[in-house]
Design brief:
Radius of gyration: 21 Å
CATH class of the largest domain: Alpha Beta
Number of domains: 2
Number of strands: 18
CATH superfamily of the largest domain: Cysteine proteinases
Shape: globular
Largest sheet: 8 strands, antiparallel
Number of helices: 13
CATH architecture of the largest domain: Alpha-Beta Complex
Strand content: 25-35%
Oligomer: single chain
CATH topology of the largest domain: Cathepsin B, Chain A
């Protein structure tokens, strides 16, 4: 699936804990607008210091990033050394002023390979060799350093209900902190520092897990809003930025399932889909991923061949989002985006229909349908490109004509 926006790569660390760790670590901070500067200082001791975990200030300068669940995510404006290696990004996650975790991304395949359309096989193979070399070094060097530095560990911690998404982490303990190390072959190397007391062993949000199905459905129904103009919309669906990565199907899945209570990141989901580090989604197990993610969220998903408004309406009215894979056109996208800002869509006449992308040669993309307006004959949807890509609109019949796979989630 193609990325169509000049967005930027984002880092999405997964941690299942007593608190909902924000999944949207994004923002325009890796592109031309901002790039953390490499420095030779070592921040290890500063990030482990008891003071910052007791409400003290974080070291150096951080930029705030929009996040989920009312949390605040901050990106360190420099890339220092941490445990002897330099990460590509460092994030601090807080809730109501309480530091929840510090996450360091050392290597990420989605960022490393980006979207490789048009690149030769030789270029991709060179990237694959470079990635493997970097991964091998980081896996050993960090494991050795963590083993020497920690009081105890490593202990393997397995999280996940399904075979596809079950992951094993190496947990090291240092005082009241746990250093959770993750090295996923062909995918990523990361480290998250958090309080040992905050650790859980499930991807499902603790508050969600405590509810029975009736309570969950009632909660989701409360997110549905209807206004006098005829708009019916679901609130509370988060934004996962896919950045310059072929992750639109994964990001939209993450958005829908996070809303249902799953606390898995785009990167963790992509690892489950077995992306092959070729700069595209070809060969990945995305359909299997959708079924597994729904199961991890204690929900279900049904797949359809094309968008069926009558069917989708029943789900949306109950607070269940619908993910649609469709053919994309940059020309049509201009109309959909303008409609989000109040401009009327072109009349769906024969001339307009002739511009709809319905050919198999048109690029594929994924969107989350979040509402509809029967009076105007429109669906309301969002893209995995940032908050500016919310509340876009298109004719119902256009989505029915351009879609080729639809996923209906429910509890």
């Amino acid at each position: 699936m193609k990325d169509f926006l000049f967005a930027v790569p984002t880092f999405l660390i997964t941690v299942a804990g007593a608190f909902a760790i924000p999944q949207n670590f994004g923002g325009n901070f890796f592109g031309a607008t901002f790039q953390p500067k490499d420095i030779n200082e070592d921040f290890t001791e500063q990030l482990l210091a008891a003071e910052i975990w007791q409400g003290g200030d974080l070291p150096r300068s951080w930029k705030t990033i929009p996040s989920l669940d009312g949390n605040e995510v901050k990106l360190l404006t420099v890339n220092p050394m941490i445990f002897g290696e330099r990460p590509s990004a460092v994030f601090a996650n807080t809730e109501k002023g309480r530091l929840q975790s510090i996450a360091a991304l050392y290597l990420d395949a989605g960022h490393f390979f980006g979207y490789q359309t048009g690149n030769s096989n030789d270029a991709v193979k060179t990237l694959q060799r470079d990635f493997k070399k970097r991964y091998t070094h980081l896996e050993k060097a960090l494991a050795d350093t963590l083993g020497d530095r920690a009081d105890d560990g490593p202990d393997d911690t397995t999280i996940g209900r399904t075979a596809l998404l079950r992951n094993t982490y190496q947990d090291y303990r240092l005082g009241n902190l746990t250093l959770r190390f993750s090295a996923i072959e062909n995918h990523s190397v990361s480290l998250i520092i958090l309080r040992t007391e905050d650790i859980s062993e499930d991807y499902l949000d603790g508050g969600t897990a405590m509810l029975d199905k009736r309570q969950r459905r009632k909660q989701l129904l409360s997110n549905v809003h209807k206004d006098a103009s005829g708009n019916v919309t679901i609130g509370g669906i988060p934004m996962f930025r896919q950045g310059l990565r072929p992750y639109c199907a994964v990001s939209t899945l993450g958005m829908a399932t996070h809303y249902l209570g799953l606390r898995m990141s785009t990167d963790a989901l992509a690892a489950g889909a077995r992306f092959r580090n070729t700069g595209s989604a070809k060969g990945s197990k995305v359909l299997d991923l959708y079924r597994a993610a729904a199961e991890e969220a204690a929900a279900s998903v049904q797949r359809g061949g094309s968008f069926d408004f009558k069917r989708a309406k029943k789900y949306l009215e109950k607070g269940f989002p619908v993910v649609v894979w469709r053919r994309y056109s940059s020309e049509r996208n201009l109309f959909h985006s303008a409609a989000a800002n109040g401009k009327a869509l072109p009349e769906a006449n024969a001339s307009d229909r002739a511009t709809w992308p319905t050919s198999k040669t048109d690029p594929g993309h994924a969107s989350v349908v979040t509402g509809f307006n029967e009076k105007t004959g429109e669906v309301i949807f969002m893209e995995s490109w940032g908050d500016h890509a919310r509340d876009k609109r298109m004719h119902i019949e256009e989505l029915e004509a351009t879609s080729y796979a639809v996923f209906y989630f429910k509890v």
